[in-house]
Amino acid sequence: MQACRRGICAGLCIPPDRPRDRIYDVIGGMHLRSAPEARRQAALQAFERFQVEMIAPCHCTGWHEALAFYERLGEKAAGCGANARFPVRDSATLVG
């Protein structure tokens, strides 16, 4: 999925009148470093609620915020940096 700076929660929360497949992977910067704690918690809850299988927070997520993803989501959180590679499903769809 692609949220493009609208905010990760806005990207996950697709209006119910739009069809959508399951969200499997989210890769990118979540721009949470200077976000209020409520927004950070909302992002974590959204990943759990939508049962995202893998999240790879990039540098603009913020170091402490990315660590929170790793601590809370365990094996669902993947390291993301230079030369990181992730499998892509045939049915991948960009939402943005």
Describe the structure.
By secondary structure, the chain is an alpha+beta fold. Helix content is 30%, strand content 8%. The chain has three helices and two strands, in the order H-E-H-E-H. It has helices at 8-12, 37-49, 63-73, and strands spanning 25-28, 54-57. Strands 1-2 form a two-stranded parallel sheet. Strand 1 (25-28), helix 2 and strand 2 form a beta-alpha-beta unit. The longest helix has 13 residues, at 37-49. It is globular, with a radius of gyration of 13 Å. The model has no long low-confidence stretch (mean pLDDT 76).
Structural class: alpha+beta
Uncertain runs with pLDDT below 50, 5 residues or more? none
The count of helical stretches stands at 3
* N/C terminus separation: 7 Å
Integer-rounded radius of gyration: 13 Å
With strands numbered from the N-terminus, the spatial order across the biggest sheet is 1-2
**Secondary structure tally: strands:** 2
Taking the sheet with the most strands, its summary is: 2 strands, parallel
Measured by DSSP, the beta-strand proportion falls in 5-15%
Mean pLDDT over the residues: 76
Approximate shape: globular
Order of helices and strands: HEHEH
The helix content is 25-40%
Write the layout of secondary structure elements.
Blueprint: H1 8-12, E1 25-28, H2 37-49, E2 54-57, H3 63-73
Parallel strand pairs: 1-2
